[in-house]
């Protein structure tokens, strides 16, 4: 007994996605589209006319290749590619019997035979185009790419940078604010020729000590004098009007200012009388200093 075997044939439809550009409101022959690295872009040209493709301003064409280079004149200039259909000369022809014969002839562009693709490589991206030759009015004169995602990323980066700059300015402004003095009861002793390292004023805010120097004076090194020993201190300088203010990041009973052989002793006569209830790491209550790797 013979067996019958049935085969079921499935038809698979393959969809090709080609990006169709949008025309401007002013002229349908001027079109634009958003770049997508996974899209094939449609170029509709017309015999006797040139179509220009415009890429990003910072792009430069590195290489181009077409599947039918003899039928298309393709040239690049900086970030532009110029395309136009062209006739070409053939050494072969088909006679009335359908056989190939040696014969020179000029083949003019026609919509059926001039379909091909174009690959463009730039210093930033890869582009794939589908080239068609049209006889109707739907051909393109100019094809411009837009890069919305990259423009969005650039805008977000600029906004982030702007916020960081504003934040740094706010921090700098906050740190440069004049502290509220709590104690002016400071005295000093200076040796000979030490006038130009002597502060014009001295006060503290209960946590930091501030020594003001006018523009003609030198800024000395500062040491804590305690138990007949000197130890170096953390300091920084900020502007306060016409004065350079040396900020000592602590209060103490005695300090020593040194610059070569010049020495000035600073004595806080009211040390510990009016301390701050809450200690801070900076002048501002809104900004805290954190040590990184113990530094």
From TrEMBL:
Keywords: Coiled coil, Signal
Parts forming coiled coils: 147-178
Matching InterPro entries: Conjugal_tfr_TrbG/VirB9/CagX (IPR010258), VirB9/CagX/TrbG_C (IPR033645), VirB9/CagX/TrbG_C_sf (IPR038161)
Classification via Pfam families: CagX
The keyword rRNA-binding appears for this protein: no
Family (UniProt): Belongs to the TrbG/VirB9 family.
Protein name as annotated: P-type conjugative transfer protein VirB9
